[in-house]
Amino acid sequence: MTRTILKTRDLSVRFGGVTAVDQVSIEARENELVGLIGPNGAGKTTLFNLLTGVYKPTNGEVSIFSNDKLININQLSPYKRSQLGIARTFQNIRLFKSRTVLENVLIAMTAKNKSYSLQAILRTPSFYKNEEKRQQQAMALLDIFGMTNVADELADNLSYGQQRRLEIVRALATKPAILFLDEPAAGMNPQETKELTDLIKQIQVQFKMTIILIEHDMNLVMAVSERLYVLEYGKVLATGTPIEIQNNPAVIKAYLGEEG
Ligand SMILES: Nc1ncnc2c1ncn2[C@@H]1O[C@H](COP(=O)(O)OP(=O)(O)OP(=O)(O)O)[C@@H](O)[C@H]1O
């Protein structure tokens, strides 16, 4: 039995009169790919913001597995959470557009490492030794995702699909234990979405990590998720395998029915 890597208990957040996330208790296991779906405004991105530390909950708890036990991370900043192995991508692409693809990956690798930043300022011998190693690691990562040929291109010059791909590579560069992907297929054409589906499957096989995916593209999310949570009005409406969710009458009524 694999261990629980992420767990929430009765997690809620209110903005004025709106309870955007309402007593949500979910969990994700080691190496599991969990889909998070629900109609617009259901609270998916707000839940991600609670899990990654952008928002503090009004009630409830977020815990992650660290040092052999589940620890409560409610009070930890996004930076501290990233040091514990949490990485995310955003709905809106957030790359350094005027830096190269390789530089974008290198920046992501260092962002997590304060002692590295000090070495870089002081230009210590270990800085130069590590620098070469890091470049090799970044190139190896780009190679896995078929991007070495654009390593020296400015991120701004990449196609939309490639920019989204680079966002994922940057998140992976921090070697996360948990990766949050917020609508990675948003704005993609069908070919790019197909490539992204393969990419997510590849990440799951090649990297050992838990992935939590928000996605409106049903073909994608049903193809890659092992288990799903459905949110509606901030609450968990259902959880189950893709087949179970597709056949759940409450889900069909609340959400999938909207499309049919
Ligand atoms: N910072 C905020 N202040 C006030 N209300 C907010 C804030 N963030 C989210 N909300 C509200 O919380 C609810 C949930 O929004 P959220 O963006 O989490 O939904 P979502 O499921 O991610 O939607 P979508 O699929 O459209 O991205 C909405 O009613 C939204 O207006």
TrEMBL record:
Transmembrane segments: none annotated. GO terms for cellular component: plasma membrane. The keyword Nucleotide-binding applies. PROSITE patterns: ABC_TRANSPORTER_1, ABC_TRANSPORTER_2. Gene3D superfamilies: P-loop containing nucleotide triphosphate hydrolases. Keywords: ATP-binding, Nucleotide-binding, Transport. It comes from the Bacteria. CDD domains: ABC_Mj1267_LivG_branched. GO terms for molecular function: ATP binding; ATP hydrolysis activity; L-isoleucine transmembrane transporter activity; L-phenylalanine transmembrane transporter activity; L-valine transmembrane transporter activity. Residues 6-258 form the ABC transporter domain. GO terms for biological process: D-alanine transmembrane transport; L-alanine transport; L-isoleucine import across plasma membrane; L-valine import across plasma membrane. Coiled coil: none annotated. The keyword Oxidoreductase does not apply. SUPFAM superfamilies: P-loop containing nucleoside triphosphate hydrolases. This is Putative branched chain amino acid ABC transporter ATP-binding protein. It comes from Leuconostoc carnosum (strain JB16).
